[in-house]
């Protein structure tokens, strides 16, 4: 076995040491739940009758105590393209479970909102907290204690983290995540971006923009850019929570069906009655969390996971922070360029080698923990092989030595960059993070007068009025978890991109989030402490010179220290009402800082 890279080992040791007490308490709780907690075998007959009453075809099969009952937690809805394929999954999964000597029931559903629909509008302020809601819904689904394993059906931005956060509180159960795959490729991403920027400049009509967007997002499956949803899938592969290679196989294909069947029939094999027990609470350990961070960096994945991965980790008693990401980034090479960090979409990525190629290459160099417990195979090496059909049966094949397209994915000895493209920024404005994998090196440092806003719309209005046609650091504050639920500021990408294309030196500084689709404009995001929590971003005034430097890790207002100390914080705008935002007030008020996961639920539980 290849020796582990020393910096990967050092960061992992740091995570293990920091997590020692919490992880031990978590494992003790999981042991208690398996050995002394409520289970189907211990339920009363009336309780069991209620659990069996909704099924006819499986009732007799569910009675034996030595047979696994699989709980299906599904994010199905047909408004969301990524989750629409799940419609028929439970019916098929029940058949495949019976073939494997098990049974299956839909334990519950979880909400699955689409950031693509809500971007820039009021519903987006529920987006981050939908993750906590999904975690709670998963917990409710599994709380009946009538399951010996679970299948988690979910893909997109907050859905996978939420499913895991809930599922890990039942960490004594074996579980597998089941994706449904990306939609097939529509118009070229470059063309989509071109039309968006034309519309931002008033050079394309709404009708032209709509036709372009529909040509891009045109069918069932995940959106094809490498944003948060598809970064989820990459991380699940590296954590060993998928059937190997399941991420980017299109819906409606025979291979997709066989991968789902394999997931269902694997669960009884790793249950606690056998000699190959693989509970999710042991699969998701410190090494698996570090592996997830590594592949995120190696593929230029979504910045949203700088919030989501710490939250997932905390649900398993593990503490990872942005310094860990920063240190890993300096040792992890960038092996993939997928839109918005390149021209290809995830279908092109898959054709060129995909997640399994990246994992194989990183393992070769000792940049991943290969000896982790995974749901399939003997360690992570199984996730470095590509799924194929041989005589209509699922099999796995080895990759060739070369990439299928080295403009999309590269081998470990010829990376796009020796580093992963993530940096921590800090200074008198607080602590933020920046993704630079798609930012030209000559724009890693921006120093310019700032213009301060409190809403995305105000930025767009100023852009349309020509007020930003200059070197500028756009500051958007009161966008943190406590202020308004930390919506993504994705609608700022086209106007800021236009300003940069015009030759201006432009950056964004915000205590909010940027989309997983963010790219070429330098953006200091997740700034903590946030404005509503007394963060110094509240001291900024129009015209202050702000320095954003990914080279040195500096984020600072270049204001006389005496004047800076004397300044008052800006008053917070009143919370907006409508679209149910008022019902999430308790989550906003109790939310942790971004680096701790931005979760009210975890904060209240002391996790």
UniProtKB/TrEMBL annotation:
Enzyme Commission no: 4.2.1.12
Enzyme class: lyase
Binding site for [4Fe-4S] cluster: 156, 223
Alphabetical keyword list: 4Fe-4S, Carbohydrate metabolism, Gluconate utilization, Iron, Iron-sulfur, Lyase, Metal-binding
Regions crossing the membrane: none
Catalyzed reactions: 6-phospho-D-gluconate = 2-dehydro-3-deoxy-6-phospho-D-gluconate + H2O
Residue ranges constituting the Dihydroxy-acid/6-phosphogluconate dehydratase N-terminal domain according to the UniProt record: 68-381
Cofactor: how bound: Binds 1 [4Fe-4S] cluster.
Functional pathway: Carbohydrate metabolism; Entner-Doudoroff pathway
GO CC terms: cytosol
GO biological-process terms attached to the record: D-gluconate metabolic process; Entner-Doudoroff pathway through 6-phosphogluconate
Cofactor entry: [4Fe-4S] cluster
Domain (Dihydroxy-acid/6-phosphogluconate dehydratase C-terminal): residue spans on this chain: 408-597
A GO molecular function held by the record: metal ion binding
Family, per entry: Belongs to the IlvD/Edd family.
Biological role: Catalyzes the dehydration of 6-phospho-D-gluconate to 2-dehydro-3-deoxy-6-phospho-D-gluconate.
Protein name: Phosphogluconate dehydratase
Natural source organism: Sphingomonas suaedae
